[in-house]
Amino acid sequence: AAMSGRKESRSVCGCCSYKEPEAEKDPAPPLSPKEGDRRCTDILCLLLFIIFFAGMIGLAGLALQNGDYKRVLNGVDYRGCICGTPSKLMNDGSCTEVEKGSAGSFVPGGSSMFGVPLAVPSSPDLSASTVVVCAPACPAAPVSSGPFEGVQLACYDNSSQTVFGTGATYSEQLDSLDSCPGTIFATTAPARSIAGYCLPKSAVNSNMTGLQMAVDKAVGAGTWASAVASLSQAWPAMLGLGFGALLISFVYLYFVQFCAGILTAVAIIGFGASLIAGGAFFILKANAIADSYDNVADSYSQDTNWQMSFYGGIALEVVAALYICIIVFMWRRIFLAVGLIQHAGKALRDVWGVVFLPVFFVPLTLAIAALWCATTVLLFSLGEIKSVDVPGVPSGTLRTFVVDDTIRYTLFVHRSEE
Predict the structure, then answer these.
(1) How far apart (Å, rounded) are the C-alpha atoms in residues 253 and 345?
(2) What are the mean pLDDT values of the chain's consecutive 10-residue runs (418 residues total)?
(3) Which of 40, 110, 31 has the alpha carbon at shortest distance from 75?
């Protein structure tokens, strides 16, 4: 079948046809970020985010208005007094926060410790209910022998004084508190202050500072404490260096588009030249060693220095030859890599504002995290301090937090924001 000059021809019988393919149209060049049609792609997610953020701000305002962070951070003793805060005992036995220096006010100790009130100190029942007691410091001088080993006695009077017993035995500590008019408690000592709470050192060491103990044992006593102290002082410099390194990396990526080819060529030629020069150096050194054996023929070949220099030089020259062969065979890939680096620099030039994204978003993220943590602490402090009948507690009444269902639901919603 003869084909005509038209784009479409048919055979004589008309059963088959041929159509010349149309020339492919050049695809439209991609739009640059500045030319693209920018719009919100997911309205529903945006609305959910706005609702979430508004709810978080609302909870933060509620917590800030009605909460008292000192209840959580300082602790509240069994009377309802906030440790380390000016307080006053009312006629009904409750405790309320007052201004410092007001009539009848006192300041309980700033450390919260857990103690068992002893109804009959001479015959202590350590299985009774444990309550919170404010103290000026954590207990540190326990009974060192007998059935009450590790127990520290403390007398808590009706105002702000907490007095620890002294002595190596239980009877000695009890005698030292004979003149104290308050309630005697049995606490665990020695204790370590963690966020204002006195926790037994044995529990702290086993649960929280295993790494510290391992580091001190491997390196030396006090190593962990010294490292923590150094980091606490150096964190501003470390943070500044981190941002500086990030900025320098962006600047380098921006300017590398202009000199990527030169830098790559210098690196390739420099490494190859160093291999060749190193090999030549060792060979010349071997020749110098051989020249020192002019009077004894061929004895230099047994010299270890000559062997290391000569064969080392030969090895470097062989590596240089292999390196040159690899560069020759991979030069297309090298050019491609250089082109990619240059395009990356151009992209950074077109969207230069990306450099400031970490500087903006990192502080913003930290601020939101701080707001969430502060709101959590304040929400936990929203509960009312009410009286609960507990056997063994002085006057038989324990004043503690009571959280209603509304606050529980609020805490659940706040946790879901995490």
Answers:
(1) 5
(2) 44 46 52 55 81 82 79 80 82 77 77 83 80 84 84 77 85 87 83 79 55 70 76 81 80 79 89 92 87 67 80 91 92 88 75 67 83 80 68 61 56 53
(3) 110
The angle, 0 to 180 degrees and rounded to 10, between the axes of the packed helices 331-350 and 304-329 is 70
What are the tokens at 198? 């006195």
Structure tokens at 409: 């639901």
Contact 22, 35 (CB under 8 A): no
- Taking only Cα atoms into account, the Rg of the chain, rounded to an integer number of angstroms, comes to 40
| Pairwise CA distance, residues 130 & 148, whole Å | 16
Nearest to 108 by CA among 127, 80, 128, 131: 80
Q: How far apart are the first and last CA of the chain?
A: 76
DSSP β-ladder status, 87-89 and 17-19: unpaired
HEC profile for the chain?
Answer: CCCCCCCEEECCCCCCEEECCCCCCCCCCCCCCCCCCCCCCCHHHHHHHHHHHHHHHHHHHHHHHHCCHHHHHCCECCCCCECCCCEEECCCCCEEECCCCCCCCECCCCEEEEEEECCCCCCCCCCCCCEEEEECCCCCCCCCCCCCCCEEEEEECCCCCEEECCCCCHHHHHHHCCCCCCEEEEEECCEEEECCEEEEHHHHHHHCCHHHHHHHHHCCCCHHHHHHHHHHHHHHHHHHHHHHHHHHHHHHHHHHHHHHHHHHHHHHHHHHHHHHHHHHHHHHHHHHHHHCCCCCCCHHHHCHHHHHHHHHHHHHHHHHHHHHHHHHHCHHHHHHHHHHHHHHHHHHHHCHHHHHHHHHHHHHHHHHHHHHHHHHHHHHCCCEEEEEECCCCHHHEEEEEECCHHHHHHHHHHHHCC
Q: Residues 63, 379: contact at Cβ < 8 Å?
A: yes
